[in-house]
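Field notebook, page 288. I keep forgetting to write these up properly, so this time I am using the form the group agreed on. The chain and the ligand, NAP, are recorded exactly as supplied. Prediction of the bound pose follows.
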Amino acid sequence: MQHRRIGQQTVSAIGLGGMPMSIEGRPDRARSIAAVHASLDAGVRLIDTADSYHLKPGEVGHNEELIAEALASWGGDTSDVLVATKGGHLRPGDGSWTLDGSPEHLRAACDASLKRLGVEAIGLYQFHRPDPKVPYLESVGVLGELLDAGKIRMAGISNADPDQIRASQEELGGRLVSVQNQYSPAFRSSLPELRLCEGMGLAFLPWSPLGGIGKAGGLATHDAFATVATAHGVSPQQVTLAWMLATAPVVVPIPGASRPETARDSAAAADLRLTDDELATLDASVDG
Ligand SMILES: NC(=O)c1ccc[n+]([C@@H]2O[C@H](COP(=O)([O-])OP(=O)(O)OC[C@H]3O[C@@H](n4cnc5c(N)ncnc54)[C@H](OP(=O)(O)O)[C@@H]3O)[C@@H](O)[C@H]2O)c1
């Protein structure tokens, strides 16, 4: 398993996204736990979650609890697994996602995530999404407080533009370690943020790297990815993740999964080497 770095921590080059296990269309608990175990068995050492990955209003933290349970029941050494969670989004229960980036909310959300994850300090805590009602740096400033208080070991932001990335790094006095933005063959508009992260030495975690829940199958209809996949005898989803890894050494994709099969298949992308010609063909196919 190829490795990458987030801040000072070494993680697997491919992570696991927990969202499909907890929102609309989620499977039963046993299948979700099996998917997390399959990832860990395959060498995955980064799991992305959020307090807002849940369905009904009364079950905030559904995914965090599930991840904590899966880590506890796995049986192996989990001390090198980085669990990355987030605060700042809410789900009122009607399928929508609302925002609360107020310092009061973020402080309380972090305390609640700490309890659910059962840890003394959260490995990586990310501000989920800018809240237009709250000055951005007031929200990000809370990450600094949480670092100072030892409640979180590392701080990240998500859904941020280049100005917000630069301003956050300044606000945190150089302690920002990661940016999590949407990025996939079909959604490449955060390439400037990816390149900025590369220049600043920040980890870039592409979310929905396969196109999103219920859409990953679409990669099979993408000619270039399908052709390279056939040549290697692997899935087009695996090719997509390997192509993404080759974009820059700071890229750490977090494909979501709710089945052991897909979790295992995606993890194997960390060991898939594509040739320069293949990478050029794939680049040209998404640029075109
Ligand atoms: N920061 C943010 O605002 C934000 C927003 C969205 C997501 N995220 C994070 O990013 C993670 C990834 O995004 P996502 O889950 O929305 O979308 P995604 O990773 O693009 O796609 C997830 C879907 O792809 C399928 N899949 C995964 N690996 C596959 C493989 N090797 N072959 C075929 N199908 C495969 C899974 O199917 P099965 O369910 O059948 O396993 C899953 O439902 C989330 O889980 C979450 O942690 C963050």
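OBSERVATIONS:
- The mean pLDDT is 97.
- The CA atoms of residues 116 and 248 lie 34 Å apart.
FOLLOW-UP: compare against the apo run.
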